């Protein structure tokens, strides 16, 4: 039975191949369900953002409200009116976003330039999570596509209903926020909406499924292969080339993100040297937004224009000159930088936090000078600093993910129960982490929120875990704090010169105090740093690692370091003689010592640990192997899905163009195939001959007999000199006898086949033309 469509009493029924009938009561829900899946795909991306910055309940409330409103208005207002309402909803949403971003209410509707600028930045690769007002932007973005998609779907305009949702999902693909699986599901839902909707509306045949499959494959391929130029100078993507898996590459792996991983490696090789009359930690990155498993720097960077923000209150200044000893993707500075000088500053960007970074990697020998502020970090001054925080500080540096557990909040409250001010809260948290957790580079990253896992479940970790957890604990207590990466002071080789190695990579916490600014706290515990650090360096020297020293440091024992106070010591509690923060080595012996703890992870005498003196070994644990295998499985699954999509698309495309028949006919020209009845073989031989002649001369005309056709091709009147091979006449005679006469013998059929085979071989490239 042929495919057809019928309608009875207003209830359309689609008849599909035989007796299979699918009514609109089934197809319509399927189409609407596909629209909901498409909507859920991009809403899920936005939900992941609001889980980090807050606003998930508002997001779901807006989505539910838009779905309900669209359902109610579907039969009441016209599509143009619905489109206008969607634009108005988007306008109010983004007006609220611009207001939150600092545009005055009186000019918010004329501030199109700011909105266009942000939109272009997002469409050219800026992730939504890097936006300062990511949550508000998300709530402003979602109403229009949800309302319009559902309105059109309820009205039965299925193809049009895919457009708003498809644009929304495509935009999130451009920003990099929509992952592979989400994109695949959304794209499949869009194709499903069109397919099922077409069946419901027009009674289309499922024979068109091959075309839909081709469209699906093409759209998926395009959506997953979008490449764009970043909307701002991104800077180098790795700290040091060839150091993947090291602590420093993990914490400074990209210009906008700082990663958190499991086991990391360390390197004794020299990264840079500093000339400074004051010891310091050397800061390379500042991050304000915590996603649960990584840190993100929000806002876009701008090129350095000779000015950096000054800290509040009174401060002293210190100058330092930094020289790159290898290729570097970062610019270490002593906090808080006030001004930069040197040739490299012409290609330097500055983040919203005032941290510089090179647009292109620094090369060995590149040098720059920094003037930094020395803030007042005395305990008495910080204890009396109060809580009158500037709005820009509380707005950006109190964020915690929505998924933060109540147990984390309760434990933090217990630890800080006796603290009377933000300074004492910082001291209590710092003391607790130093005394309750061990130091180790061999850890497995917990699932979910890292701060939760470290405080409540883990017994040991390294600086990234300590600093992340302290930052989140302070924020839970309403104390503005931020996560900072960089290096400890390194090895002092002269009165004012420091050699900084990969061993010194570190992360710590900066806490804001009114009228003072950002003050460093370091919750990572101390220990046998000097002894193991010396062993690590001596091992590298013994193995002949020339990159582990400069000319000035090669004969200097690391134990000969000057124990002067650093620029920003972690503030001690003078009223508590047992306070770990009152350790005279605090600041001079940086707590992020990679060899810190009772069982150093990279003890050179431990054969099971990796050597970092040139040739690195794997040194991974079973947990890391499992994580790697799981990661590989994830990649393999995604690749398999993409491969399946491509195969389905190719198969559907082949069916669409009838590739099988075309291939069979092409092969049949050159190969007769199996032989059976002589008459049928003679007829097939002539068919092959006809296709050969049609390619060389012209196809046989409709109504033209076989004999007339060959006679026209063999006429002496041909002017091109290309005469028909006379053996073609013999094939014609066998064909006519097989078709209209008494038939042919087996030998005659074989002769016809042999003639055509020979003529076909002459048509193959390099053999010659048909003669």
From TrEMBL:
Matching Gene3D superfamilies: 3.10.620.30
Every Transglutaminase-like domain range: 455-525
Keywords: Membrane, Transmembrane, Transmembrane helix
Highest taxon listed in the record's lineage: Archaea
InterPro entries: Bact_TGase-like, Papain-like_cys_pep_sf, TgpA-like_C, Transglutaminase-like
Coiled-coil residue windows: none
Keyword check for tRNA processing: no
Pfam family, one: Transglut_core
The protein's name: DUF3488 domain-containing protein
């Amino acid at each position: 039975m042929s495919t057809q469509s019928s309608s009875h009493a207003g209830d359309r029924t689609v008849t599909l191949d035989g007796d299979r009938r699918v009514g609109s009561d089934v197809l319509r829900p399927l189409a609407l369900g596909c629209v909901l899946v498409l909507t859920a795909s991009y809403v899920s991306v936005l939900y992941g953002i609001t889980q980090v910055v807050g606003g998930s309940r508002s997001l779901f409330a807006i989505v539910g409200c838009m779905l309900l409103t669209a359902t109610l208005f579907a039969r009441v207002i016209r599509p143009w009116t619905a489109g206008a309402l969607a634009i108005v909803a988007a306008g109010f949403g983004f007006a609220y976003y611009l207001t939150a971003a600092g545009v005055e209410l009186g000019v918010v509707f004329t501030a199109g330039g700011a909105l266009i600028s942000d939109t272009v930045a997002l469409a050219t690769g800026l992730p939504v999570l890097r936006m300062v007002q990511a949550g508000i932007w998300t709530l402003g973005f979602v109403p229009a596509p949800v309302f319009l998609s559902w309105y059109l779907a309820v009205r039965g305009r299925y193809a049009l209903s895919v457009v708003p949702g498809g644009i929304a999902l495509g935009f999130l693909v451009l920003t990099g926020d929509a992952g592979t699986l989400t994109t695949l599901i959304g794209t499949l839902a869009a194709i499903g909406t069109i397919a099922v909707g077409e069946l419901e509306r027009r009674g289309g045949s499922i024979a068109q499924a091959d075309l839909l499959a081709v469209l699906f494959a093409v759209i998926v391929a395009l959506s997953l292969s979008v490449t764009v130029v970043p909307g701002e100078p991104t800077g180098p993507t790795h700290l040091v080339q060839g150091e993947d898996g090291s602590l420093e590459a993990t914490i400074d792996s990209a210009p906008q993100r700082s990663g958190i991983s499991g086991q990391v490696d360390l390197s004794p090789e020299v990264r840079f040297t500093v000339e400074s009359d004051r010891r310091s930690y050397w800061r390379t990155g500042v991050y304000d937004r915590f996603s649960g498993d990584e840190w993100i720097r929000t806002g876009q960077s701008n090129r350095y224009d000779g000015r950096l923000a000054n800290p509040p209150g009174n401060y002293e200044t210190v100058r330092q000159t930094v020289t790159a000893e290898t290729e570097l993707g970062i610019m270490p500075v002593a906090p808080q930088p006030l001004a930069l000088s040197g040739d490299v500053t012409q290609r330097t960007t500055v983040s919203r936090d005032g941290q510089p970074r090179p647009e292109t990697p620094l090369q060995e020998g590149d040098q720059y000078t920094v003037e930094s502020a020395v803030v007042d970090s005395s305990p008495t001054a910080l204890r009396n600093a109060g809580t009158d925080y500037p709005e820009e500080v509380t707005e950006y540096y109190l964020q915690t993910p929505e998924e933060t557990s109540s147990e984390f909040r309760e434990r933090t409250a217990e630890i800080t129960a006796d603290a009377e001010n933000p300074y004492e809260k910082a001291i209590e948290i710092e003391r607790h982490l130093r005394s309750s957790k061990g130091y180790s580079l061999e850890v497995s990253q917990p699932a979910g929120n890292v701060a939760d896992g470290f405080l409540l479940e883990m017994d040991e970790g390294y600086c990234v875990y300590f600093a992340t957890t302290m930052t989140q604990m302070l924020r839970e207590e309403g104390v503005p704090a931020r996560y900072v990466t960089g290096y400890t002071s390194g090895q002092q080789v002269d009165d004012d010169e420091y050699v900084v190695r990969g061993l010194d990579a570190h992360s710590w916490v900066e806490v804001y105090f009114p009228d003072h600014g950002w003050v460093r706290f370091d919750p990572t515990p101390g220990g046998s740093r000097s002894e193991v650090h010396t062993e690590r360096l001596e091992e590298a020297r013994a193995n002949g690692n020339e990159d582990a020293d400069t000319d000035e440091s090669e004969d200097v024992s690391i134990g000969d370091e000057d124990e002067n106070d650093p620029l920003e010591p972690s503030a001690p509690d003078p009223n508590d003689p047992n306070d770990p923060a009152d350790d005279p080595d605090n600041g001079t012996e940086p707590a992020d010592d990679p060899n810190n703890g009772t069982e150093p992870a990279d003890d050179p005498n431990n054969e099971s640990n990796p050597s970092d003196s040139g040739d690195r070994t794997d040194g991974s644990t079973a947990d890391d192997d499992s994580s790697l295998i799981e990661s590989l499985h994830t990649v393999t699954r995604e690749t398999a899905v993409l491969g399946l999509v491509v195969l389905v698309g190719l198969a559907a495309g082949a069916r669409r163009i009838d590739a099988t028949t075309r291939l069979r006919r092409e092969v049949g020209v050159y190969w007769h195939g199996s032989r059976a009845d002589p008459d049928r073989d003679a007829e097939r031989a002539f068919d092959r001959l006809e296709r050969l002649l049609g390619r060389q001369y012209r196809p046989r005309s409709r109504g033209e007999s076989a004999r007339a056709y060959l006679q026209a091709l063999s006429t002496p009147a041909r002017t091109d000199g290309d005469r028909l091979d006379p053996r073609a006449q013999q094939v014609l005679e066998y064909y006519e006898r097989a078709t209209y006469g008494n038939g042919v013998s087996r030998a005659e059929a074989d002769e016809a086949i042999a003639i055509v085979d020979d003529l076909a071989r002459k048509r193959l490239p390099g053999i010659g033309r048909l003669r």
